Amino acid sequence: MGRRNEHTREELREIALQAAEELVATDGLAGLSTRKVVARIGYTVGSLYMVFRNIDELIVQMNERTLDDLHERLAAAVADRPPPALAIRALAQAYIGFALTETPRWLAIYQHRLPEGETVPDSFSAKVTRMFALVQHELALLCPHRSPDDISLAARALWSGIHGVCILGFDQKLEFVGGRSIAEVTRSLLDHYLTGLMGTD
Amino acid sequence: MGRRNEHTREELREIALQAAEELVATDGLAGLSTRKVVARIGYTVGSLYMVFRNIDELIVQMNERTLDDLHERLAAAVADRPPPALAIRALAQAYIGFALTETPRWLAIYQHRLPEGETVPDSFSAKVTRMFALVQHELALLCPHRSPDDISLAARALWSGIHGVCILGFDQKLEFVGGRSIAEVTRSLLDHYLTGLMGTD
DNA sequence: ACCTGAACACCGTTCAAGT
DNA sequence: ACCTGAACACCGTTCAAGT
């Protein structure tokens, strides 16, 4: 019979997501399964489907929580409103720091792919946009007389670039010979890109 | 009894890899399985393990073939030895073009992760290095009086950046509001980064 | 209404048995 | 030596049955 009524739906959702995060933190996204999640919280497989439509929905919701944590870290990095040029570097460092300390959860955001044709919920996209807006804001302060269109393009180029450095940096498989530290490569990208951007005002 | 001795070991390896590539091309890396591969080539599961240690080895070898194809496309893009500034843009465009036309196979290179502790064979790393050397070579021509150390750092920053634009660009999940084309974002990254790099000679 | 647990259709991998 | 196919330990998902 099990633990009927011991948890509300919302509590069940919460402990399931917590269990999922623990499993991912130790064994990566590949170490996550419905059966392992329910074993951890003392339920059986069926009950997971009372709360999540399927395992993809569970993963998406877990990733949304990771995006919340990441946004908190990024926002904290610029909380004392440093000058824009420093703020952008602080954001990049905070992103790298999160990727370094929360590697499996951070990786899960990019590893997980919805089945063909399905799209992520609006709440997820909103969290991505919100994180991205932090960079865009600092770039706008740095280049006050550039068009919003220019700023959005530059922010996307810069942030994608920093993300690329992190992704390739964490993938030992792609570790180039004579590997450089992620921080060093990011600095090169950031410094030269910003110099070029400012120079072509 | 099946098709005993119809193929040599090498032929079996070849048709298995071909079947794997077809499966990935239509259904992505998630659509690949040992059982689907053998069903396509008229063998049973066991025989796959005569040729590959496990499915990870099969995927790594498939990805090496993709890296070969990618290198061919990149090398062709600079075969007529354009001036370095154009060559770098041609390499970036060729990379985007490959990602666009061979999306699932290209993605599989980055999606696949070896189990904890295992590393990719040297032949794989060599192919990554070889591709990377193309960019490094053009950057060295572009900045003749920079140290090899500077060049390698810049090449890594630039190539990681372009890769980041592609990876985020193909992940609809991360499609930012008012999405820009991958080519447009790459151009911004490339132009401003190179301007900054040249300016700080 | 909540939850179980058997059932189904899949996995990757191994290995005794057949030719 | 090559290859099969049953067996094992896993998956995700569904749903009749129990409380």
Task: Please explain how this structure is put together.
Two copies of one chain form a homodimer. The first copy, chain A, is elongated. Chain A contains nine helices and no strands. In chain A, 73% of the residues lie in helices and 0% in strands. The mean pLDDT of chain A is 92. Chain A has helices at 9-27, 34-41, 45-51, 55-77, 84-101, 103-111, 122-142, 148-170, 182-199. Chain A has two domains: 1-52, Arc Repressor Mutant, subunit A (Orthogonal Bundle), CATH 1.10.10; 57-199, Tetracycline Repressor, domain 2 (Orthogonal Bundle). With 201 residues, the first copy, chain A, is mostly helical. Chain A binds a DNA duplex (19 and 19 nucleotides) through helix 3.
The pair of chains with the biggest contact is: A-B, 53 and 53 residues
Radius of gyration of chain A: 20 Å
> In percent, how helical is the residue content of chain A?
over 70%
Which topology of the largest domain in chain A does CATH recognise? Tetracycline Repressor, domain 2
**How do the helices and strands follow one another from N- to C-terminus of chain A?**
HHHHHHHHH
Oligomer: homodimer
